[in-house]
Structure formats: C-alpha cells, structure tokens
Amino acid sequence: MASMTTSNTDNSSNTDSGGGAGTGSRAGVSGGTGDIDPAVRADLDRLRESIDNIDAAVVHMLAERFKCTQQVGHLKAAHQLPPADPSREAQQIARLRRLAENANLDPAFAEKLLNFIIAEVIRHHERIAEDTHTRE
Predict the structure, then answer these.
(1) Where is 26: in which H helix or E strand?
(2) Residue 133: what pLDDT?
(3) What is the pTM of this model?
(4) Taking the chain, what is the end-to-end CA distance rounded to the nearest angstrom?
(5) Phi, psi angles (nearest 5°) of residue 27
(6) I need a surface site. Which of 12, 21, 24, 95 has the fewest CB within 10 A?
(7) What angle, 0 to 180 degrees and rounded to 10, lies between the N-to-C axes of helices 107-135 and 86-102?
(8) Which of 35, 26, 33 is nearest to 5 (CA)?
(9) What are the residue ranges of helices labelled H in 2-106?
C-alpha cells in the first residue's frame, strides 16, 4: 500500500457505514489539501462497493425472511395461535448467538439484531391476526 500521511481534513463526500474511519485524523489524506491518495481512494471505492453489495444482499435476504414469516403469521392466525412464541424466540436467539460466535461477530450485536427483527415479525403477526378476526 502507498505511504500515508495524516491530516484532519477530508473533502470526500463519501461516508463509511460499516467500518469507516469516521471523523478526525485520516490516513491516506495528503498534507493539508484534502486530496486523497489515488491508491487509498481506489481501496475505499472497492471496499465501499463491496459494502453496498452486501447491504443489497442483506435487504433481499430480509425481504425473503419476512415473506416466510408472513406465511407463518397467516398460519397462526388461521389456527388461533398466538403471534409470539417465546420458546421459539429463545431457541433462535441462542442459535444466532452461536452462529455469530463462529463467524467472529459480537453475539450481543447479533442478539440485538434478531430481537429487532422478532419484534417486527410479532407486530406483523398481530396485524394479520387482527385482520383475520375482523373478516370472520
């Protein structure tokens, strides 16, 4: 990699969401002008493109997951089952924590993410149950 100098200015309009340097001193910024070394810019662009692709995949995977959970919600509503299943949720959280540990991802972060998703799924299931019961 090219040699890097540090400056407190960066005229770049790109932001890093998912591993960027944030604000303050930045490596790869040439002295005082704010121009980023072309090799560093190329690395940033390549990494940001990868992040964008991963974000798109995450969104598509979440959409597929919610299609499945919507079907679960309709099945639960049709058979008067409760929208939440605490036992299943606990199993899923434990499973996701293990997966996170194996992937070198913070298990607490993975649990927070899954809890957020579960809360949204339960909200959908409650709405499906309400809609089903008002039609009956």
Answers:
(1) strand 26-27
(2) 82
(3) 0.69
(4) 67
(5) -75, 150
(6) 24
(7) 150
(8) 26
(9) 38-78, 86-102
Do 7 and 30 form a contact (C-beta atoms < 8 A)? yes
Q: Which residues contact 108 (CB under 8 A, 6 or more apart)?
A: none
Tokens of 18: 């998912």
Q: 36 φ, ψ to 5°?
A: -85, 135
Q: What is the pLDDT of residue 70?
A: 97
At residue 34, the pLDDT reads 67
Total residue count of the chain as it appears in this document: 136
Closest CA to 36 of 58, 7, 1: 7
Question: One digit per residue, pLDDT tens: the chain, 136 residues?
Answer: 443 333 333 444 444 555 444 444 445 555 544 688 999 999 999 999 999 999 999 999 999 999 999 999 999 999 999 999 999 999 999 999 999 999 999 999 999 999 999 999 999 999 999 999 887 7
SS3 state at 86:
helix
CA distance 78 to 81: 8
d(CA 21, CA 7): 13
Helix (H) or strand (E) holding 6: strand 6-7
